[in-house]
Known about the structure:
two-stranded antiparallel sheet
Amino acid sequence: MPKQTIWYDNLPLWEICASSSSAPTYFPAYELKNGDLSLPHIDGGIAANNPTLAAISYAIKLGHKLEDISIISIGTGETSQPYSYKQIVQWGLAEWAIKLINILMNSQSSANNLVAEQIMSTKNPEGYLRL
């Protein structure tokens, strides 16, 4: 049975990148137009700051074996810093709200990286590189 075309199958790469990289607080949402619809898009990192596990899962769903998968995962570098107890014990609601976004994004990315390394190491230890 032929694959059904989805409205976003033929979007230009630049528009996909713009749609997925509009980080809130840094850039405005990207307006993606689809016929009469005007859809706002924000940074894909809100859902998956390190989407490596999603890529591995999708490749397996398509029938690829782990030993045939190679991934280069490119991050933006470390954005978090360790905080001392003396620092955080003084934080109020506003400070926690500001810092918590980075803490959550970095911990999600680190956890995905760790699991991706463990999965790939079972069949293809040289097939995964995180920069």
